[in-house]
Design a protein that fits this description.
The protein is of the alpha+beta class and 367 residues long. The protein contains nine helices and 15 strands. It binds fructose -6-phosphate and magnesium ion (2 copies).
Length: 367
């Protein structure tokens, strides 16, 4: 008999940190582990891992209740509330930051925390990589997902594996107009690049294998500042990728981070900077509140159990890209408040810059 479909839910939030916006406190993680441990004992979830990337806490949970399940989202909400209480008690910075509502309302939609979930029949062996970033926005995944699932210079499997040769389907969301469009690759590659090359607005939400319509990747695409209408913090997105046996190999998935690429975020969510791949232990954005970090944790699923993690970027193979990232960061920092280091003016709409610009309005005289 086929195994029941398992759901992998990754729900994340920044509910306070020390010192400043650098790292969630171990006491916050402890209280969250206790809450999720209880839920596991009661059978609500099958397994969990609590990750910490910078000032964000990521709840990685498996269960058999499907995407967008009220009980699972409530569990995450309550766990973040418990961590907020700890943050308040210790007077940590920005306690409760991402919880935009006073109450829970059915699911996380519009409430602040980021969500990436997928439901699928577990394969005979199910390798998964979960990417988690700090100090950047969901557009940070566009280029790596394009490389993993569409670029044969990154993923040789697209050429030589008959199970991958048909290509993949990409669901792209317009985060401003709240609509979506699906592209079938490789045929519609150029059309898709028209959009995803503007990662501040268009984000890849789902990737599906064309040969069997199976889900291959999902990202969190919540935009805190668009939701709140003011600057709260960066979204610090997560992304789940299934690997191997007709999907990109683990090594092809990780290869997408072997060259530096620029993402929006960094200090005050207002700068372009290179994304730095690091192990979980080194995910503390220090310099100029950055550079933006990405952590990759690998798990094998086993009847819903999370076997792992394997902390992939804790490897010398990523030392070279780290050096290049730091070099690039130095170069961009030299530009200080000038574009293109600082984000373009329209992208700063939901930062504190417009408040300052307003002061200058009365100073202008007609030419
Ligand atoms: C980035 C981020 C930080 C803050 C910066 C100023 O997402 O949250 O870079 O914007 O540290 O923070 P405040 O205004 O709280 O002093
Ligand atoms: Mg923060
Ligand atoms: Mg953060």
């Amino acid at each position: 008999m086929a195994e029941k479909e398992v759901t992998l839910s990754v729900i994340k939030a920044d509910v306070g940190s020390f010192v400043g916006h650098v790292q969630a406190h171990p006491d916050m993680l402890a209280v969250i582990r206790k809450e999720l441990g209880k839920a596991k004992d009661e059978g609500l979830i099958t397994d969990f891992y609590v990750a910490n990337v910078g000032d964000d806490i990521e709840l990685i949970m498996t269960h058999y209740r499907g995407d967008n399940n009220e009980q699972i989202h409530k569990l995450a909400w309550d766990a973040f509330l418990a961590a907020t209480a700890v943050a308040q008690e210790l007077k940590l910075y920005a306690a409760g930051q991402d919880l935009l509502s006073d109450s829970f309302a059915g699911n996380m939609k519009g409430l602040g925390p980021g969500v990436a979930e997928m439901t699928f029949a577990e394969r005979p062996s199910e390798p998964i990589v979960i990417f988690m970033a700090d100090k950047t926005d969901p557009g940070a995944w566009n280029l790596p997902l394009y490389k993993m699932f569409a670029d044969p210079f990154n993923t040789i499997g697209l050429i030589i594996d008959p199970k991958m040769h048909d290509g993949f389907k990409f669901e792209v969301h317009d985060l401003v107009k709240h609509c979506k469009v699906t592209f079938t690759l490789p045929e519609e590659l150029y059309d898709m690049l028209v959009l995803i090359g503007s990662p501040g607005r268009y984000c890849i939400k789902h990737v599906y294998a064309r040969r069997n319509q199976e889900i291959a990747a999902v990202t969190s695409t919540q935009r805190l500042n668009l939701m709140a209408g003011r600057y709260i913090g960066k979204d610090d997105p997560v992304c789940i990728v299934r690997c191997q046996s007709g999907l990109p190999a683990v090594g092809e998935v990780l290869e997408a981070f072997a060259q530096p690429h620029l993402v929006a975020g960094w200090m005050r969510g207002s700068h372009w900077g290179p994304l730095l791949p690091v192990p979980e232990q080194e995910s503390r954005p220090t310099r100029f509140d950055g550079p933006a970090r990405v952590v990759a944790l690998g798990f094998q699923l086993c009847h819903g159990r999370l076997i792992g993690p394997q902390d992939f970027f804790a490897d010398v193979a990523f030392d070279r890209v780290r050096e290049q990232v730091l070099e690039l960061a130095d170069q961009l920092r030299r530009l200080g408040p000038f574009e293109p280091h600082r984000l373009a003016q329209d992208q700063l709409e939901y930062t504190t810059l417009p408040l300052v610009a307003k002061k200058l309005e009365g100073r202008f005289e007609a030419l």
